[in-house]
């Protein structure tokens, strides 16, 4: 019994269906692990597709099947309606999947030992199809400028020599989520044309585009030496039906590809996959609602991770349902393994995409499942934070001194003699460590009628990430459980608001200490 075809909140149990995404992970790592990795969605396919498959199955005969005029027209009309691109029927070529087609194109259009360029971090099969077919892999890595991933055209031109024959691009880009602009694609096309490179553009995520971004197919940039690969598999969640197609306007390339396909006797298609494509490409309304739901999930995940895992860095995807998360500031050997072990969430390992310090999150799932995934990631992130306290002598004190030196002496030009005031021996010291890095420190002294909080220092690169609040909460808990009484501190004027939010009140006029404006603040109740 199928529910509302547009009910993307519906949870569909995928365990015990031989799901690559779910069952393989559960088999290898346990049934408490939530998969959020490979790019298929946890939504039912559109009812139009399901109904069409039912009708075809009920016919009861599944003999050899050819691709009809209706099949090709469905592709042609989809390109016109969704991408504003006019294609001719004879340009369309067929295949059993985008990745196998990449392999076929490499073998039919280049020679062993030729160089092929890819743009990491990128979809892992791009690496494999080049190397496994005896070609030389050349990496033209994307660069991040002003918080946005971009192609490095200068580097690209330097990499090209007389053995370089092809460049494979991902548009929209998996995993960083860029939707390449017409201007960017034109610049790439001009370089390729200048050097005689074949461009293969994997456009399988072309329908998952978030406004105001607009998808531009490479076909609208140029047709010479251009090959487009696509499939309804990602958009309509029918990747398991293994069908794909290419668009090759360049007759020389098209003939070479078709001859290679004929040599493999790959001339017929899966009867159900052909029916599914025809039905899928009549489901525009479903796609529009899907993209709106995914946009909401994207915005929720981006906001949640930015707020609750601030050491990670991510860019808002312009397209795809995948989020690329830079974990380099966690300074751990394998972020994917860490979140698997401590969050019980299976993410894609960035190593496979060309960046071992990143992970990829698939947010194409019902919101309740996404919330649980993110809650687990947050818990694992917070689990790595510890705050220790100790009295002197203790070897950890040198770490506190080092942090205070960078914050107060080097950062604020406070005289080191003033900073080292000789009172550390009578203080309780607090030291905050997150993952493998010490990030903040503070000390407190029992003055008799009250406690005095001093030397609260967070390293500059870790400010604004909640460490100051965490260390203050730990101090207050320590005081509450050992010797409760009022807390006093001299707050630098620029952080007065921070302490007010924690419940501290000003009890003095502004005064100068160590050349910096301060105000005395107090907290009497917890």
Number of contiguous helices = 17
Spans of at least 5 consecutive residues with low confidence: none
Query: Domains counted in the coordinates: how many?
Result: 3
Largest sheet composition: 8 strands, mixed
Helix and strand content put the structural class at alpha/beta
Question: Your description of this structure?
Answer:
The chain is built from 17 helices and 23 strands. With about 525 residues, it is an alpha/beta fold. The protein has three domains: about 120 residues, Alpha-Beta Complex (Aspartate Aminotransferase, domain 1); about 220 residues, Aspartate Aminotransferase, domain 2 (3-Layer(aba) Sandwich), CATH 3.40.640; about 140 residues, Aminopeptidase (3-Layer(aba) Sandwich). Strands 16, 17, 18, 19, 20, 21, 22 and 23 form an eight-stranded mixed sheet that branches. The longest helix is centred in the middle third of the chain and has 25 residues. The model has no long low-confidence stretch (mean pLDDT about 95).
């Amino acid at each position: 019994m199928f529910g509302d075809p547009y009910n993307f909140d519906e949870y569909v149990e995928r365990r015990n269906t031989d799901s690559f995404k779910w069952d393989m992970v559960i088999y290898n790592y346990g049934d408490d692990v939530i998969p959020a990795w490979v790019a298929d969605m946890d939504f039912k396919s559109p009812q139009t597709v399901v109904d069409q498959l039912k009708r075809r199955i009920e016919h009861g005969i599944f003999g050899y099947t050819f691709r009809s005029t209706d099949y090709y027209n469905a592709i042609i009309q989809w390109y016109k309606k969704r991408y504003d691109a006019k294609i001719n029927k004879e340009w369309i070529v067929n295949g059993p999947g985008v990745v196998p087609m990449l392999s076929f194109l490499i073998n039919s259009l280049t020679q062993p030992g030729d160089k092929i360029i890819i743009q990491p971090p990128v979809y892992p099969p791009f690496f494999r199809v080049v190397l496994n077919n005896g070609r030389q892999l050349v990496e033209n890595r994307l660069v991040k400028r002003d918080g946005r991933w971009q192609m490095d055209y200068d580097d690209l031109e330097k990499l090209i020599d007389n053995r370089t024959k092809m460049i494979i691009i991902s548009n929209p880009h998996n995993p960083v989520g860029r939707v390449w602009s017409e201007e960017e694609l034109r610049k790439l096309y001009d370089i390729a044309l200048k050097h005689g490179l074949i461009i293969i553009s994997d456009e399988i995520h072309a329908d998952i585009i978030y406004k105001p971004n607009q998808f531009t197919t490479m076909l609208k940039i140029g047709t010479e030496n251009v090959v487009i690969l696509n499939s309804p598999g990602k958009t309509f969640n029918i990747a398991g039906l293994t069908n794909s197609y290419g668009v090759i306007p360049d007759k020389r390339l098209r003939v070479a590809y078709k001859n290679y396909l004929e040599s493999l006797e790959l001339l017929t298609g899966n009867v159900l996959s052909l029916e599914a494509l025809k039905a899928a490409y009549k489901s525009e309304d479903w796609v529009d609602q899907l993209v709106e739901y995914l946009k909401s999930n994207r915005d929720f995940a981006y906001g949640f991770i930015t707020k609750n895992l601030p050491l990670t860095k991510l860019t808002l995807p312009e397209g795809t349902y995948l989020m690329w998360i830079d974990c380099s500031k966690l300074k751990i050997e394998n972020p994917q393994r860490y979140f698997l072990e401590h969050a019980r969430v299976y993410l894609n390992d960035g190593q496979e995409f060309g960046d071992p310090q990143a992970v990829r999150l698939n947010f194409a799932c019902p919101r309740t499942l996404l919330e649980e995934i993110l809650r687990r990631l947050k818990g694992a992130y917070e689990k790595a934070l510890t705050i220790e306290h100790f009295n002197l002598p203790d070897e950890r004190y040198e770490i506190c001194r080092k942090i205070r030196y960078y914050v107060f002496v080097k950062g604020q030009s406070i005289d080191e003699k003033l900073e080292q005031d000789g009172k550390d021996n009578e203080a309780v010291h607090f030291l905050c460590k997150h993952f493998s890095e010490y990030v903040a420190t503070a000390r407190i002294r029992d003055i008799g009628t009250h406690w005095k909080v001093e030397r609260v220092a967070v390293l500059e690169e870790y400010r604004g990430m909640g460490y100051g609040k965490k260390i203050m909460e730990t101090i207050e808990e320590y005081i509450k459980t050992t010797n409760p009484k009022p807390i006093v501190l001299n707050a630098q004027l620029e952080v007065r608001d921070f302490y007010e939010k924690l419940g501290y009140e000003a009890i003095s006029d502004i005064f100068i200490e160590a050349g910096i404006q301060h105000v005395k603040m107090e907290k009497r109740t917890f």
